[in-house]
Batch of 3 targets.
Target 1
Amino acid sequence: MIKTLKYLDKKDWLFVFLSLVFVFGTVYFELEIPGYMAKITTLVQTEGSVMNDVWSAGGMMLLSALGSLICAIIVAFFASNVAASMAHTLRDKVFDKTMSFSMEEMNRFSTSSLITRSTNDITQIQVFIAMGLQAIVKSPIMTFWAINKILDKNWQWTAATGGAVLIILVIVTIVITYAVPRFKKVQVLTDDLNHVTRENLTGLRVIRAYNAEDYQEDKFEKVSSKHANTHLYIGRIMSLIQPTITFVMSSITLAIYTIGAFLINAATGGAKFELFSEMVTFSSYAVQIIMSFMLLIMIFILFPRASVSAARINEVLDTEPVVIDGNINDTNTELNGVVEFRNVSFQYPDASAAILKNINFIANKGETVAFIGSTGSGKSTLINLIPRFHDVTKGEILVDGINVKDYTQEALRNKLGYASQRAILFSGTIRSNINFGENGKPKANDQQMDLAMETAQGKEFVDSNPEKYDASVSQGGMNFSGGAKAENIHCSCH
């Protein structure tokens, strides 16, 4: 969790510092209130007291409450800004890191896990920071300051308060010991739930075509039940905390007043009034001590999940991509349109044997080269090695006479056209999808797009749409047929 703090910028650290300052202000004003309460109690019980003194003490008490409210609002404002800024930075960095991953890293983490890490996990950290800046600092300050104010009071009351705190600590320790191991499991199960949901929604047409709804429902139910049962287990354990604290708070107030009743009954004269005022003040401070422990407990509840989430995010950010950029950024080379494989072998990281062995060939400019083989023979893998979606295990691949590893990935892919095996379209318009392959270059005009669509035999499809190139495309091109998707994909490569 601490490693994620390095992503805070100077503005965030300034807000953290200001939060700490105003937390001190909040604690100061809150701890002044019992003192004014005791003063009012003493004035009411003392003969000859004037009403102006009572009003004055009451006014100061009200101002202290108002000061505490204002400081708490300011702390919440700064804390929420820091948390939102941290979440924004982490999402950007996780997304940028993911964009740098090769297929090896993508397969290692899985798409569903990366989605969970960039959404749910970062949200857990955001909530923890927003709450933590208010509670982590406030709780110990409030505890020690309140204890300091009651140290010189009656030892019986102090012992009762200490016993209440000890009971809370024991309960919290037991709860956290059993709950923490489950938090990591929850995040993994969230990945699984995300994976199954995404798979079902993506393959909905296939599921319906094969009447496999019941099978997929059972598959989803198993994952969902595990997720729900783990949450229920944690919820049942955590449910012990709130009633325990409420019981302890009620009990400590009852204990203080019960002890106070005996002490006041045994006292004589003016000592009775003094003990009564001390009892009122002490009970207020005791409740504030218990409340400060409640804040700490809230952090104990949030911290395990945030810690697990931070570890998962750091795992992504600390992963070094296998595919590293070369130094050549110039696409102008002596040769043009020549691809050569020299003794190329490739083995997937989790495979026991190489899928490609000692592949040698040259594809010259203007030639059409076809790879024919059975399913799983490595045809797609061979093609994916050229744009460096994977790096070769042995040998080398040359594009225009230069090893693909010597190019920057951007320069290499600017030299290639790519029509994927699966037709993938992005939300936007037909125009934006056709221009997708022109990233970093001047966008094609209507005449150039017409030529591209005619080459891909998709001009008739565009002309039949009233909006032509400005027709909307839904996510994944779900509003297009398979052939229309393929036409757009081929056009984006020209």
Target 2
Amino acid sequence: MATSNNWVAQDSESAEHVGIIEFEDPREDGEYIHFTVLKTETHFLFGGVCNTGFLESGNYVKDKYFSDDENLQQLIEDLESFYRDGDGYQTDNFSHNDRM
């Protein structure tokens, strides 16, 4: 199971910038949550950027049987569920750190 306790930062040195995902905060109408997303061979990394670089908040292990678009959609669904259900939300592919 994935929780902040088993999160491990991924090597993002050769990661490809995918873009920014944004979704409405399921807890507050009219508020939005956004993350910068990077892609490695095996993971999508999500977090923020600042003048020192990318700050990873978590990652999603891509399912090799699905396209990048399908994996990205699942990441968004996992993030929405995490914000709706709280720290108790867990999947095998989704992990996060305390920045969440």
Target 3
Amino acid sequence: MLRIGFRDYAQWTRSSELALFSSMPRVATAFNIPLIFLGENPALAFGAKTGGDGAEANSLRDYDTLSGASLTPWIERGIPENKLFWYRFPSDEDIERLGLRMVYLGYFIRDFDDIHNTAFAKEHLFQPREGRDADPTCTGSINPYESVDEDFVHVNQHLKSIKLGFGKVVQQVSVMVRHGAISREEALELVRCYDGKVDRNLIERFCAYLEIDVEEFEIIVEQFRNRDLWQLNNQGQWELRYAPR
């Protein structure tokens, strides 16, 4: 399923996010649990198109990367339906029957953001990434306390930058600027240096996991590169047409 997601959309996370988000309401409707707490509201925290300006999260299936939570792409490619239980959201009827309510916990906590959550993690001896795993030139991330459970998230952020023109650092510094932790000029410099970066070793490991070769990875990346945002410079290297300023 990861391989299908990467080949079809240059977005390997689509299936894993389906399982991540649908498993909670699946359990809730099975055991009559009427309330689910999620973390941050993606609209307020990151500027996502879904999430709204409040606490309600019942529109979760319409989250940008879930695309309506349809399983059709997987079923059409031969994934058996009986293997997709945890990837399928409950029906609207089941949710209404239970009166299930999903809410973003972060909406009710004043300091629920990257800055304060990182400080909380440090105070409670959370172990961050270290060494090369924390190097933003390798990860495209400036926060070593974030996304510590797996490495391919950095490949996904690189792919996002190919398609949308921005990666993880833009998201991270936007939060920092809004909270006054850094200036806009400092944020722009971090974006210029690190946004969209990913280490070659991570790409090779990602390809090995998906059982594809790096050449196929590079072909797919170029197929999905947004030419409205990227152009070749005089050295034959890809650069953004509209540099951060």
